[in-house]
Amino acid sequence: DGGITQSPKYLFRKEGQNVTLSCEQNLNHDAMYWYRQDPGQGLRLIYYSQIVNDFQKGDIAEGYSVSREKKESFPLTVTSAQKNPTAFYLCASSTRVDYNEQFFGPGTRLTVL
Amino acid sequence: AQSVTQLGSHVSVSEGALVLLRCNYSSSVPPYLFWYVQYPNQGLQLLLKYTSAATLVKGINGFEAEFKKSETSFHLTKPSAHMSDAAEYFCAVRDYTGGFKTIFGAGTRLFVKA
């Protein structure tokens, strides 16, 4: 089955620690995205990548970093510089065609203690 | 720039009643529009999309949406609500500023009463 996997489902970290969230897709999509979701605020774009070895900042990139070394993988690191990292993080992917939708992973809920 | 506004952060209907979730968009070019559904602690799933073919778009689970250019709207409807429809719904529009990005509305949470 083709799809997007995110791991782990739940993640707990102490304040001041960096943490990396995994996102893998086997849909052969060129574009991948990371969103943050907070209650009542919808989805906010953190970073996106249109192609391997290239990525751009989204609307709320401060305190986050990404890499795109492989087409299938787009890991997100939440650094200690992120002021309020507790949130639900969603990874998505799409083809590079305007009218095509994004496919979403199941999400990772990060709680910083 | 493209944008999406969803009217009503919460909508409550009785089981069997009409579901109407409102979405208005702003776009300087013909838009590509989407409705997604999210169940608790899960990712988003596409319900339907408008790509300038038919103005009435049918989606999964009995949902449909009508594109009205004159009203810049893309409201989501379902004739008869089911308990399993309780979820959060997001309207979205393709962002033409580059990067194949999508702009999402703030979401509408649908409650279905027995």
Describe the structure.
The complex is a heterodimer of chains A (113) and B (114). Chain A contains no helices and eleven strands. Chain A has strands at 4-7, 10-13, 19-25, 31-37, 43-51, 54-57, 64-66, 76-78, 87-94, 103-104, 108-112. In chain A, a hairpin with an 8-residue loop joins strand 9 and strand 10. The termini of chain A are far apart. Chain B has 114 residues and is mostly beta strands. The chains are: A mainly beta (113), B mainly beta (114). Chain A binds chain B through residues 4, 6, 31, 33, 40-43, 45, 48, 50, 56, 58, 88, 90, 92, 94, 96-99, 101-107, 109, and chain B through 9, 32, 34, 36, 41-46, 49, 51-52, 90, 94, 96, 99-102, 104-107.
How many DSSP H or I helices of chain B?
0
Name the average pLDDT of chain A: 93
Mean residue pLDDT of chain B = 93
Structural class of chain A: mainly beta
Number-wise, the strands of chain B total 11
- Strand % of chain B is over 45%
Residue windows where pLDDT falls under 50 for at least 5 positions of chain A: none
Radius of gyration of chain B: 14 Å
List low-confidence stretches of chain B: none
- Distance linking N and C termini of chain A: 36 Å
- Beta-strand fraction estimate of chain A: over 45%
Helical fraction of chain A equals: under 10%
Structural class of chain B: mainly beta
Q: Which series of helices and strands of chain B comes N to C?
A: EEEEEEEEEEE
The whole-angstrom Rg of chain A is 13 Å
| Most extensive protein-chain contact, per-chain counts | A-B, 29 and 24 residues
Oligomer: heterodimer
- How many individual β-strands of chain A? 11
Keywords, separated by commas or semicolons:
heterodimer, A: 11 strands, 50% strand, B: mainly beta, six-stranded mixed sheet, 11 strands, 54% strand
Give the helices and strands, then pairings.
The complex is a heterodimer of chains A (113) and B (114).
Chain A: E1 4-7, E2 10-13, E3 19-25, E4 31-37, E5 43-51, E6 54-57, E7 64-66, E8 76-78, E9 87-94, E10 103-104, E11 108-112
Parallel strand pairs in A: 2-11
Antiparallel strand pairs in A: 1-3, 3-8, 4-5, 4-9, 5-6, 7-8, 9-10, 9-11
Chain B: E1 3-7, E2 10-14, E3 19-26, E4 33-38, E5 44-50, E6 56-58, E7 64-68, E8 73-78, E9 87-94, E10 102-104, E11 108-113
Parallel strand pairs in B: 2-11
Antiparallel strand pairs in B: 1-3, 3-8, 4-5, 4-9, 6-7, 7-8, 9-10, 9-11
